[in-house]
Amino acid sequence: MSLLGIDIGTTGCKTALFSHQGETLATTYTEYDAQSAKPGWAELDSLYIWGMIKASIREVVSRTPADPVQAISISSLGEAVVPVSSDHRILGPSILNFDVRGEEYLADLHETLKDEHLYQINGNTLGNHYSLTKLIWIKEHQPDLYEQAHKFLHWSGFVSFMLGADPMIDYSLANRTLLFDLDKEDWSDELLNHARLDRDKLPAAVPSGSVIGKISPHIAVDLGLTPDTVIVAGPHDQCANAVGCGVIDAGGAVFGMGTYVCITPVFTERRSPDIMVEKGINTEHHAVPGRYVSFLYNQGGSIVKWFRDTYAAAEHQQAAATGQDIYATLFSEIPADPSNIVVLPHFQTTGPPDFISDSSGVMAGIRLETTRGDILKGIIEGITYYLREVVDSLPPTGIKITHYRAAGGGSQSDVWVQTCADILGTPITRPKITEAGALGAAIMSGVGSGAFKSHEEGVQAMVKMEQTFEPDFKKHERYNCWYEKYRQLWPLMQAYLRDLVSETR
Hints:
The structure is a single chain. The protein is of the alpha+beta class. It folds into 2 domains: about 1-245 and about 435-460, Nucleotidyltransferase, domain 5 (2-Layer Sandwich); about 300-400 and about 475-505, Up-down Bundle (Methane Monooxygenase Hydroxylase, Chain G, domain 1), CATH 1.20.58. Strands 15, 16, 17, 18, 19, 22, 23 and 24 form an 8-stranded mixed β-sheet that branches. Strands 3-2-1-5-14-13 form a 6-stranded mixed β-sheet, sandwiched between helices. Helix 16 crosses helix 19 (about 475-505). The chain is globular, with a radius of gyration of 22 Å.
């Protein structure tokens, strides 16, 4: 018997089958692009991607006929929702978190819903990247769609629902709506009233790893699954990354290197709202009971993808046609020493502490002799400086990071992981399976279906480490100097950048 894990991200979907010992039996990855019908909009075509996900399941199952699937669990991006009918029709696209729609409601919400009070309930502060403002926008601008929708489902719950499960959401994804009560583990009537949204438009919330149904008979036939295949509620993708890296206890942190480059520390006690709001640090459910996580992130992977598509578009196409990895070529061009390019990674809305949306990216220090590799090195350095600044702000919160585990597609690059270790001055360990989201989802499916008695047992059985990258402290000292230069860039340029962006909107 095998365990199927699906990890749905903003720019791609990983589908993988694993044995109970953590052996990868079959895997496939499908990349897609967000659609933008208007400036500032960002959507996923729900129907199109659902078709791609079905095809990916069909493919991996067909390659492992001797290992029938015991259970399925799906991890996914956090904030985007899909409107569906009660008879499983897809009613519209999925609005992504960096879509600007909903910003118009923030001022009024801030008047009635103070950050400290919201944090006390939900563990987050108000922002347009959450589901709340997108749902308000749909209700106000697309009232017919709002009324027609039976439920608005996050991608994990949406795919599970289409496979045959009841409409459900796990606690970790429910957190990302801004409508969930962290302590009561249920939708907050107070927050729903503030937003003037209807509870019955949202699915029931359950703990991660709960059994939420079985595969529909006609779907089972279509995808090559047995009708006894169990569907297990999957978590937010960063929580799945943590499970897939073995980060389930306090002190551990994932260094996730995907579309979002995200540090996810684990802790066991809620902190004072005052200090957490001041630092812009959130508190959310982990996939593991009794643990919390925070997300310290920027859209670094999207910037690296932009670099690929801008500076190596033809090479990427050629490499893809021959099954080669263009990133290996690009990262081979990176210089060994710290670069003299300082990059402000504000290419899209940033993460904590400030969630800046009215800025833009900056590359400072470019000269005629600057190479493509220099620019890429500057990008991954700037991404990491941003995260280091957030990590450096953690001590007053009481959140401690004792060790890092690397995950995501970017972690396959030795150069990238080593650069992060050198900048942070901390070892980073890379598991054998770096696409930890799919593995974490598979572990959750094993826990939910009874293949494992606990998350600890699942992690022990399926997660294996490959290599630890020790920091080069001579480079770390040099990076400290460049880090200080990075920290000066935003204060120097913020007024100019904000004025520049306002002129283009």
